[in-house]
Amino acid sequence: MAQWLNYHHLYYFRAIANEGGIARAAEKLHIGQPTLSAQLKQLEDMVGKPLFERRNRKLILTEAGKGALDYANEIFRLGDEMLEVLKDRTPEDQPHLQIGALDSVPKSVILSIVKEAYKIAPCVVSILEGKGDELFRQLRTHKIDLIVSNYPSQALEEAQVFSKSVAKLPVSVYGASKFVHLKKNFPQSLKGKPFVFPTTHSKLRHDLNHYFKLHGIQTAPVAETQDTSLQKLLAEHAVGLAPLSEVAGVKEESLVRIGRLKDVYEEIWLMSAQRKLENVIAAKLMNTFSLH
Description:
This protein is an alpha/beta fold. The protein has 3 domains: 7-83, Orthogonal Bundle (Arc Repressor Mutant, subunit A), CATH 1.10.10.10; 96-166 and 269-288, D-Maltodextrin-Binding Protein, domain 2; 168-265, D-Maltodextrin-Binding Protein, domain 2. 40% of the residues lie in helices and 25% in strands. The chain is built from 10 helices and 10 strands. The protein has helices at residues 7-19, 22-29, 33-47, 63-87, 107-120, 132-140, 203-214, 228-236, 246-249, 280-288, and strands at residues 52-55, 58-61, 96-102, 124-130, 146-149, 161-175, 194-197, 220-224, 242-245, 256-273. The strands form 3 sheets. Strands 4-3-5-10-6-9 form a 6-stranded mixed sheet, sandwiched between helices. Strands 1-2 form a two-stranded antiparallel ribbon. Helix 1 (7-19) packs across helix 3 (33-47). The protein is elongated. 29% of the residues are buried.
């Protein structure tokens, strides 16, 4: 006779494991300790093995318990994914695409992705700008479908996160009209000049530092920000020069292109996470979208 898994038992077991004991789990779940102990005993009887052993008044997972916890985490992760995906779905003729974007990504790149999504199918596109760690957390929990980033994340080490390079953008130095004379003798003309840089943790900042060191150019940083719109605004007001990808700066009439930084590029990545209920538009973009 087939046995049916009682998911309440599994849920309580997971809570005990995560909280480190029955007392703390009972307090968090607002149920009595005897009830929780009974639920755990029923699960252990069903699997035929102890899931915990008691050491120094603490509950320690057995090898069977560690395996059971891995299964429990995956089961409830899939349940959370199902709820997130299904509750956010709009009618079939108007699917929803949720994109997370770092504020350092040029807006023109995001525009290109949105336009491509509309070509795939009529849809509603939601765009959330934020910090990398938060966006990757939302990607892994399926609250967003895609991330547009200008650096690969450590999250890519996880098997369930996929990435694709979709653009490699040349970088030039832009500034207000008062800096137009710096076109002459570029890039040596940049020595000692004020700069609005991306923040130090970004790959582009690392590449810029390498470029200037290689060419013996000492700049004078006056501001740091990951927001390309703010970089351009500060450059427009002559706060300093801004190194920008050419798609970000080329259409700014208030900025002068001083010169291109040879062999310096800003790479753009599109990222998705494995899921049981696939967003068709996101999957198509991962397979086909490219600005290379």
